[in-house]
């Protein structure tokens, strides 16, 4: 077999995660200069692209919606570890770090990843077709989680400011984890067919009964899937870790152009969510918009449902307040995003206009993060 084949052990998609981890080990804890930051950025991009490749290999083996669920959960678990690490060891005020990171992830996934996927699907196939039952269930869970954890702290009265009391935080953590667990059960067991790609020629279809009957290559072997799973996790560790290393030059760049320091978190969130963004875009290009929405809404769900419980546990050892309540501008953006997403999901079909509307909301979020 040629060394250029994707299945070769020396193919770049297999080597990139290993090299990226070595670069991470060498650069961790350092403040790289401009030239070093550019070099690290190249390895970061390589790790992102290889992670997407291996996620698709694993997804092809285990089938949907398990593949998109795996990628969303894996990225979020590593992202949670990064947030907790920054809150424990970070300098300065980290009281709103978890809130800002989770909200950025929600806006990027619900408006950015979903909007880009809808735009790609609609432009290439005239209409982006998906299952409203599956996408609607996921969106409903995202809205409930965001309201419980990011909106309510602004209106509770047990403690001053946008934070929960200990009992309220415990309830929010348990409720978040419970909602996420119930959704995963619904997605993978109870109503799995709602989350499979739909046949664009059959408006009432709920899922394709045979995903491998489309002329694509046969699923990989168990051994190949396990190797790809290992390299996927390794690549995601490298992506999040190198994003953290790149935060130092990003901070310098943000300060140099006069942007608010909080914008650094938005840039890092964009980097961390690159694997899902690319995977969702590629799925939409294959007319599998449902898989794209599984990734988008699943990532938003996992970001809240896994982060809040982890932060609740970590808060036992963390000093200082934990601000979870959104600012008024953020709540307006969240409300408009929810309304637009509901109107997009209900018909089960979307035009390119829907994609542009979602992307305009993402642009508004990024602009207001720069110029609050």
UniProtKB/TrEMBL annotation:
Main location: membrane
InterPro entries the record matches: Alkaline_pH_Ca-Antiporter, NaCa_Exmemb
Transmembrane domains' residue ranges: 12-29, 35-54, 66-90, 102-123, 135-155, 167-186, 224-243, 263-283, 295-318, 330-346, 353-370
Localization of this protein: Membrane
Domain of life: Bacteria
Sodium/calcium exchanger membrane region domain sequence ranges: 36-188, 228-370
Membrane protein topology class: Multi-pass membrane protein
Keywords: Membrane, Transmembrane, Transmembrane helix
Protein name per the record: Ionic transporter y4hA
Upper taxonomic lineage: Bacteria, Bacillati, Actinomycetota, Actinomycetes, Propionibacteriales
